[in-house]
Amino acid sequence: MWLSALRWLLTLPSAVVGFFLSVQGTLALVGLLENLCVGGSCTDWKFLPTGVSIYLGITVAAVAVVLLPTLIAPAHKHHTALVFYALGAVAAFWMVTFTGEPFMLLTALVAGGVTTWRLWLRFGGAR
Questions:
Q1: pLDDT exceeds 60 at position 6
Q2: Is 123 strand, coil or helix?
């Protein structure tokens, strides 16, 4: 009983940890790409390798925010996936107000949506 309650309590922190680990990984990758850059124009996010790494980081963050809590939840996994997709979507909408980049929002929504759909099918939401 207490283990089940502990697993429910760990769902939200797992989403936050997954998000921040993916952000740190993305920042490390961007830093590495900047160190490999010879010219001065490589720091702009529109530079192809930097842009790809940022969008890859957004995808990993969206997947982590949905996947980790769903795997930790002791029951109702398909509903957990939906709840955390909704929370991630709200966070993505909030973050796009700072970046002004709608394609970053679209990337997060699609990656989280595909992950949610796959988890919904996997854990019995389609029955």
A1: yes
A2: coil
Model pLDDT for residues 15-47, shown as the tens digit of each residue = 999 999 999 999 998 888 777 776 666 656 556
Q: Give the global pTM.
A: 0.88
Burial of 57 (0-12, 13-18, 19+ CB in 10 A): buried
Band the pLDDT of 50: cuts 50, 70, 90: confident
**Contact 101/43 with Cβ under 8 angstroms?**
no
Say how far apart CA 16 and CA 18 lie, in whole Å.
Answer: 5
Number of other CB atoms surrounding residue 47 within 10 Å: 17
- Contact (CB, 8 A) for 58 and 35: no
The mean per-residue pLDDT over the stretch 54-76 comes to: 95
Torsion from C-alpha of 16, 20, 21, 25, nearest 10 degrees: 160
- Alpha helices of 73-101 — where are they, by DSSP H? 77-99
